[in-house]
Structure formats: C-alpha cells, structure tokens
Amino acid sequence: MTSPVDPPADTYSEDEVEVEEEEEEEEEKMLEEAVQEEEEELQEELPEEAVQEDVPKSPIAETVPEREPLYQTISPALIDRAVRGALIADAYALSTQGVKDWEILKDLDETFWSSLQNPLAPELRESSLTAGDFTCGGNQAVWLHQYCTSTTEWSLEGWRQQWLRRVTEYDGQLDAASQDTLAFLRDNSEAMTGGSTQQGSLAAIGRIASLLLLAPSREHFVQQVQEMVGLAHHDQQVLATAAYFARVLYKVCEGAEVKESVLDTPMEDPDLSEVLMMEGSSMHDLTSKDDETAIIEAIVNQDREGGIAASFSAVLALLLHCRSWQEGVVLSTKAGGDASGRAMVFGMIMAASGGSSNVPPADWLRQTTVDALIPLAASPNERQPLPPSQPKRRPSNSNGESLQSPKQSRIVTQ
User: Are 93 and 329 within 8 A, CB to CB?
Assistant: First the structure.
C-alpha cells in the first residue's frame, strides 16, 4: 500500500524528467532538420524562376483563402506613374482637342507648345475650361482610379454602378460615346456592355492603367480591360485594340522596351494586324523638324479618316518614332482632332517605361490637379471604401480643406 507521502508509482525523479525533456528536444530538433532538408531538396528540384521568397500574407487574403493573392504583380508606384502620365498628357492635349483645321495649329510658335494652354476649339472655349483642366476622358480616368483604390478586386457591376453614379451627378458635358453609353444603360438596367459604336476616340483605353492595381496576372488584366472598355464601346475592333495596348502596357511595366513590346505583341484583329505590320516596317527615330512634320501630317490625315484603325495607326506611329514622353505628347497635340485620346495612351505607356526622359515636366504637373487627385497608389490592404457621394464638391483632406486648385476639372465635349 502506498503511503500518502510517497510519490505515485508513475512519478519520475528530477533527473529522469530532465533526461526525458532533453530527449524530446533532440527529437524535435531532428524533425525540424529533416523538414528543412526536404524543403531544400524540393527547392533544388524546382526551376529557377519558380523559386520565390516568402511573402507575408495580407490580412485581407487570410479572410478569403480561396481567392488568388490580392497583391498585384506590378508595383503601385509604377502604376501611379502610368496613371499620372496619361492624365498630364490629357491636360496638355486639352488645348487642341477637337480642332479639325490643322492650318490653325501649324503656325503656332514654340511658346504656345511649351506649357499647358487654354482650349482652342470653340465649343471648349465656351465651356469655361482653362489650362490644367481635364477632358472627358481624363475625368473618367480619375473616377476609375478612385474606384480601383477603393476596392480589393475588380467587379464590372461595381464599376458600372460607380460610373453611372458619377456621370449622372457631374454637371459637365459628356463626349458622344459617354452620352450613348449613359442612354443605353438607363434603358437596359441589366446590360453590362455599352451601346456606343463610336470608334474614333481612344480615351477609354487611355485610362486602363489603374486596373493594374486589381490584376494578379496579365490575363486577368486583359480581361478586366476588355470589360471596362466594353462598358463604353460595343465594337469588336475597339476591344481588340484595348487588349493589344493592355498587353503592351503590361510588358513595359515588367521591364520590356517600348518599341520591342509594340512590335512583339500580336494584334488579334486581322485588319488591325496589317496596320501594325505597316507601322513597324517604317519605324525610325525622329531626327529633324521634317520628320516631325511628316508624322503630324500623317496623324492629321488619319484623324480625318476616323475609325479605330486610323487611331490605332496614329498611336503606333508615336510609340515607334518618338524617343520621350514629352516629344510624343506634343506631337499628338500639334495634330489636333482626338489629341487627348492619342496622348493618353502614348503618355501612359511611355511613363510606365521609366527613365528621366519619360517623366512629365514638373511645371506641367503643377498646372494640373493630378497630385491632389492621384496620390501614391496604396497596397490593397490599405485601401478604404469611397466616401458617400457628394456632387459638385472638390476633393478635400481630412480637415475638409480643398485639395484642388480654383480650376475645377470638368468633363468636356471631345
């Protein structure tokens, strides 16, 4: 019989406990080493490009484990640069947007082209727009960027609702494509594609860079671009053009050269593919005023033809011939017509390519509201929902102080 003060039969002495703990620690150590060796062997068997560093999980990603990673593959700073490049190009091109008579433009001196100017088109002069404002395409680029930074995944329905709310509340003038789309979506409440067949303007494609914030891969990005552009344009060639420039932009963001990306990216539409081949065969850098004049005249003639093929050809010419962001944006603006649409697509891609030659001039930036409207892009887990709608109010900081200059960016007729 065991005495009350005697230790139970299964009780170990202190020495025995210490020995057992040491054995358990040794077993755990051996197990950890075995697991580590297996992981190292697995890493050695994988191809080099498949080996990745451990990345901390997003708190949001942990709440939706079945979703793909929320972090976009392109850095937010690079996306921000592309968006800004498109917007500043749009503000600069406002001066000649809609001007169809090139005779008015070709005799303007270099002082005019050295900074942002008031619009020359009569319909824009009457709309109280001044230097630094955005066209219709520029304003909608701002809306899309605000939507993409307020959510963690792309939703066509979510963007449709946001676009309808913003375009309905805004007191400016809409371009023809946006007017068609608004009327169609009001008459077809369930529609996810627009009713516009307007082909000429590239403004919808010039705002696609913000979608990179929500795209975990190139394929996702191209799909999102086609859905967003398809909400405004019901035309297969426009969608093919959107997909083409989406792939070019993605390659450039990954580090590829602009001209290389333009020539190596396939165009799915056969007619537009021929346009790409023709422009590629004549590629060369602009080295003289005569070269610049020839490109401008070609763009003017293409703009007069109208249609997506002419617009596509004009942007290709800028991307393949121009050596810097400023050079191409100025040439597009000197040609008038759809100056903004061309400049936005060109400016977006060139700004994404990096380098000091592709940074918009600082004094041009200061003439716009880009700094206030497009802050540095946030990572997905830092994004906040959009505030409730407040029509006709300027952006403000947390203290309610206006962030926008006295010039209100307005939607204008293109």
Answer: yes
Residues 80 and 149: their CA atoms lie apart, in Å, by 11
Q: How many CB atoms lie within 10 A of CB 106?
A: 14
Tokens of 276: 């790409």
Coil, strand or helix at 173: coil
Q: Pick from 148, 147, 124: which is nearest to 135 by CA?
A: 124
CA 407/CA 370 separation, integer angstroms: 12
CA atoms of 295 and 320, how far apart (whole Å): 11
Phi, psi torsion values for 302, nearest 5 degrees? -65, -40
Three-class HEC string of 48-85: HHHCCCCCCCCHHHHHCCCCCCCCCCCCHHHHHHHHHH
Per-residue pLDDT of the chain (414 residues; tens, 9 = 90+): 444 444 444 454 555 556 566 776 777 777 677 666 665 665 554 444 444 444 333 232 233 233 343 445 788 889 999 999 999 999 999 999 999 988 889 889 999 999 999 999 988 888 778 999 999 899 999 999 999 999 999 999 999 999 999 999 877 778 888 888 888 888 887 777 776 666 567 989 999 999 999 999 999 999 999 999 999 887 899 999 999 999 999 999 999 999 999 999 999 999 999 999 999 887 777 767 778 889 999 999 888 888 899 999 999 999 999 999 999 999 999 999 999 999 999 999 999 998 889 999 999 999 999 999 886 554 444 444 444 443 333 333 434 443 333 343 333 333
Q: At what angle do helices 218-230 and 156-169 cross, to 10 degrees?
A: 40
pTM above 0.85, yes or no: no
